[in-house]
Design a protein that fits this description.
heterodimer, A: mainly beta, seven-stranded antiparallel sheet, two-stranded antiparallel sheet, 9 strands, B: alpha+beta, three-stranded antiparallel sheet, two-stranded antiparallel ribbon, about 35% helix
Chain lengths: ~140, ~120
């Protein structure tokens, strides 16, 4: 059992079959992954509780991150290339655990936005729609 | 066109098949340093521009205009990225005062650490 520090985590993007680190990321998140269910409640369900069952499908969710945006940086250009030329791209995140664990996922779509503020550096927010599932450690 | 991979920390998407791959911890496929791969124009420009590769044929050399001039700066930036050097420590890294961080996050002294320390005392 260990508490894994975030500093040193690496998020990579595939460029021509090579996964290379995306620089200047300040935070990341993965959300929306869930095993899909349907409402299985019937009029003769006993008790007040509604019932749910599995459809057999799971949502892969999204992978999001914020970074200091440098338009000259090759990996940042690789991200915006996916806006101008949509394509599936394999990415992965490597954690700082002892193994270390690398979880790969395929992004089918990407969102990209940037923010500029007087009291901060130029930042970009990136969202990736995962197709299939992230490869979680087992 | 062909490029040569020049780092040890570049992995490959699961299922990739190539002679220049090895399996490391967690079953992750990594490219062996020195492996030459075929890429398209944009891939060559991005990987060479990011300090991950260098052109390995004339065609790649032609599309990576000026890469030799930028090489030292690009490789240094790539190394700082790989080692997670904080922005406030980058100048110290460039000067060889520190080479990275230990497990506690403290700077690991570099070859010029002693000289920098002496300068501080005398300055």
């Amino acid at each position: 059992m260990a508490k894994i520090k975030v500093k040193g985590s690496i998020i990579k993007i595939t460029i021509s079959s090579v996964l290379t680190a995306i620089g200047q990321i300040t935070e990341f998140s993965h959300d929306g992954a869930e095993s899909e269910t349907y409402d299985a409640t019937t009029i003769d369900t006993s008790g007040a509780g509604k019932e749910y069952s599995q459809t057999g499908y799971s949502e892969g969710g999204n992978f999001n991150f914020t970074m200091f945006y440098d338009p000259d940086l090759a990996t940042h250009q690789a991200l915006t290339d996916l806006i101008t030329t949509p394509a599936n791209v394999v990415c992965d995140v490597t954690f700082t655990d002892a193994t270390p664990t690398t979880s790969a996922f395929t992004a089918a779509g990407i969102s990209f936005g940037m923010t500029g503020a007087m009291n901060d550096g130029l930042k970009a927010n990136v969202g990736m729609k995962i197709t299939g599932l992230m490869a979680y450690a087992t | 066109m062909k490029i040569r991979l020049i780092r040890d920390d570049l992995n490959a998407p699961p299922g990739t098949q190539h002679d220049g791959l090895e399996i490391r911890a967690g079953g992750v496929l990594f490219w062996l340093r020195g492996t030459v791969i075929d890429v398209e124009k944009r891939g060559a420009q991005l990987l060479v521009g990011n300090g991950d590769a260098e052109p390995a044929d004339d065609e790649a050399e032609a599309v990576c205009v000026g890469w030799r001039d930028k090489r030292d700066r690009v490789l240094l930036a790539r190394e700082m990225l790989a080692k997670g050097i904080e922005p406030e420590d980058r100048e110290a890294f460039r000067q060889g005062v520190m080479v990275g961080y230990d497990d506690n996050g403290d700077p690991i002294p570099g070859p010029n650490a002693e000289r920098a320390s002496d300068d501080e005392v005398s300055g």
